[in-house]
């Protein structure tokens, strides 16, 4: 019997116009503290984003997504932070155009398969 692993995940989204409260899911972040595992995948759908953003320039928002790769990868100032701290830093509540959902917990025997399934269900 495979070991069940506790994980947390959050959906990464872009909110082009905060006052309209519309968003497009553009990625997923998932973390398993016990296994020191953190993964981020970004799949921004620029056509969907343009459809709800109107004349808003979304290029700077898309550029801001780079921070998810930098922090999750433990680059620079984040090199000494454990995965759970990097996950908390990325999923902290923000009132900016790039946000995450609230973190959600789960249990799985296969982190990679669960990540792929959640990405397919929530982002693609």
Describe this entry's structure for a reader.
The protein has helices at residues 46-53, 59-64, 66-72, 83-91, 111-122, and strands at residues 5-14, 24-32, 37-42, 98-100, 104-108. By secondary structure, the chain is an alpha+beta fold. The longest helix is centred in the last third of the chain and has 12 residues, at 111-122. The mean pLDDT is 93.
Short descriptors:
alpha+beta; five-stranded antiparallel sheet; 124 residues; 5 helices; globular; 5 strands
Work out the radius of gyration.
15 Å
Poorly predicted runs are: none
Biggest β-sheet description: 5 strands, antiparallel
Binned, the helix content reads 25-40%
- What oligomeric assembly is this protein in? single chain
Mean pLDDT: 93
Q: Overall 3D geometry?
A: globular
Terminal Cα span: 31 Å
- The number of distinct β-strands equals 5
- Helix and strand sequence: EEEHHHHEEH
- Global structural class: alpha+beta
What fraction strand?
Answer: 25-35%
Give me the number of helical elements: 5
